[in-house]
Amino acid sequence: MPVSLAPRNVALKIVRVAADEKVRRHLMEMGVAEGGAITLISSSANGVIVVVKEGRLCLDGSLARNIFVA
User: Fold this and answer.
1) For the residues 57-70, what does the mean pLDDT come to?
2) Which three-class secondary structure string do you get for the chain?
3) Whether the Cβ atoms of residue 6 and residue 16 lie closer than 8 Å to each other
4) What per-residue confidence (pLDDT) applies to 43?
């Protein structure tokens, strides 16, 4: 399921990042990588706020729909 539809405040595992190579590399530098943990804090039509490692990230809605978690 996309991270934008995930339950709030539950640590989930990132199973796939469906983006082009440049975006995937940038996300990996911020800690969003397959096999990593991510927690959804807030979700709206325009984007999401997630916790990755020790920091919070704000991602736009289209990118959040391309990060799949389990």
Assistant:
1) 96
2) CEHHHCCECCEEEEEEECCCHHHHHHHHHCCCCCCCEEEEEEECCCEEEEEECCEEEEEEHHHHCCEEEC
3) no
4) 95
CB-based contact 69:11 (threshold 8 Å): no
- CA nearest to 38, candidates 22, 23, 27: 27
Average pLDDT, the chain: 96
The domain ranges of the chain are 3-69
> Both tokens of residue 35?
């096999």
Instruction: Say if domain 3-69 classifies as CATH 3.40.50.720.
Output: no
Tell me the whole-structure pTM to 2 decimals: 0.92
Sign of CA dihedral 8, 62, 14, 24: negative
Structure confidence at residue 45 (pLDDT)? 86
